[in-house]
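Hello Y.,

Per our agreement to keep a running log of every chain we model this quarter, I'm adding this entry. I've kept the format consistent with earlier entries: sequence first, then predicted structure.
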Amino acid sequence: MNPAQEDILGAVRQWKDAGKDVALATVTLTWGSSPRPVGSQLAIDGAGNMVGSVSGGCIEGAVVKEALDAIKDGKPRLLDFGVTDEQAWDVGLACGGKVQVFVEKVG
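Predicted structure for the entry above:
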């Protein structure tokens, strides 16, 4: 495990120990140009605080929204971001790739 990954999981542990709700987003698939590799993670607490990255910023806003929803309803999500003109510009993924992100509430 790389040090950055340990920092993300350490933050998750600290937030959970403090009684906070937490979600974890993980890149599960990439195709073409992608800002982060498979396995990259982003942790989000119930207040919207974040540690890590799944995209270098271009889809983070959409992932955080889904993570906050996952915290509320407890349901995991598998998010696909691709190169369709509409979706690419909506979330800022103009790099020409595809990214799949799994989002789940940490129990």
